[in-house]
Amino acid sequence: MALTTRCPQCGAAFRVVADQLRVRNGLVRCGECATVFDGRACLVPAPDAGAPRAAAPPVPSAPPSDPPFDPPFDPPYAHRAASEPAAPATQAPPAVLRGRADMQRGDAPPVDEDEPDAMADGAPEDEADWDAAPRPESAEAGWRPILPRDPAHDDREPAFRIGRTATACAAADAEDAVQVPGEVRTRYSNAVDSGRTPPEFLDDDRIQARQLVRRLWAYACVLGVLALAAQLVYVYRGAIAGAAPALRPVLEQACVPLQCSVGHARRIERISITSSSLRPAAGAAQGDDARTRLTLNVVLRNRYDRPQEWPALVLDLTDISDTVVARKIILPQDYLPSQAGPAFAAGSEINLAIPVEVAGLQVNGYQLDKFFP
Which positions, given as ranges, span the membrane (predicted)? Predict the structure, then answer.
């Protein structure tokens, strides 16, 4: 349903729709002066076309309460005035005076079009009365004074001129009530409203810019989360492959361009040295260079339920006083046979015979340990 609202700044009236007021919480912008105001608070009631016209107020018929003016006259003139026939007394209804406050409100009383205008009739009649006054024809005729009219026998209607007439007031009110065509806008356009500072809730350009910034931040956050997830997968690729063996082929394929490898579990406490021994190599004797060749026999067992990396071995050689005189680090590539797999299978066991060579030392004992490099 279309409503009518009026701008409190310039007085322009235009139609609005209830949906527009509901979307913007009742705030609209005037199409004439660009003033933002509450359209619901400034709604103008629609005129009722079928309402009957208000009847004119009754005109009092009582005669004026002021006593008639009785000026003193000389006997000749008084006798002459008494001898003249008296004009029939007519009672004129008093005119209604409109105050300035009433004219500003626009509450003009109904004007009867059939009634003659008092201002239009009063001035010519006044002039006719003055023209009809007796004038001396000659110096011998004597001086005849012009007597004021008796208010009781005055048949003219009083005329008042206070501010504007009722017709002018009605015309001004009609001009104020004219609806000025304007555009009810609930958005701000740089092309139309250039140089104006709109309210933030009406600036669609600013709202769209903020929405674009929010989208960009959302995309950046999503990319950041994906990058963080990729870094976590890269760092913990071995643990992920161990927890989900089905993902190992995918991770290994992804590591090809990155030149990395997917490792296995590294639980060194679950790898045990079942037995070990250090003996001179069969058929080997100390040569001229004082080098001694030994053989380290080791049995390793993986007690973990998942494959693990091959451990490195630490061999400490001691003398007769149990002092370490030499230490050797044996890496997996130094002791693994060619048929060994890439990982230490779960629950498996391997026998190793590792050659060891020392020079210029008297070896009386050894200590063997394991670790992940």
Answer: 216-236
